[in-house]
Amino acid sequence: MKPSRFTVKGRLYALFAVVVSVLVAVGGIGLTGVERTDDALRQVFEGRAKALQRISSIDELVAKTHFAVSDAVLDPSASKTEAVLAASASNLQAIDALLREYRAYPLEADERVLAERFAADWALLRDKGFAPTLGYLKANNLSEAQWVVTQALEPNAKQVKTETARLRALQLESAQREYDRAQTLAHTVQVLVAVCIVVGIAIVAALCWAMASELFRQLGGEPAYAADIANAIAEGDLSVQVQVKPGDTHSVLHAMQSMRERLAVMIGTIQRAAAGISHATNEIASGNADLSARTEKHATGIQQTANSMEQLAATVRANADHAREANVLAGQASSKAEHGNEAATDAISRMHSLSERSQKIRSITSVIEGIAFQTNLLALNAAVEAARAGQSGRGFAVVAQEVRALAHRSSEAAKEITGLINDVTSEVDGGSATVERAGSTIVDMLGSVKRVAALIDEISHASDEQSSGIAQINRAVSQMDEVTQHNALLVQKAAAAAVELADEAAALRDAVAIFRVAA
Question: What's a Pfam family this protein contains (predicted)?
Answer without folding.
Answer: TarH
